[in-house]
Amino acid sequence: MHIKFLLLRLFFTRKAATRNKIMLRIGAHFIKRGAGVTVGQAIPFKAMKHTKARTMFIDNLYYNFKTNTVTHTMSKNPVEGFTPKRKKTFSI
Question: For residue 25, is it within any domain?
Answer without folding.
Answer: yes
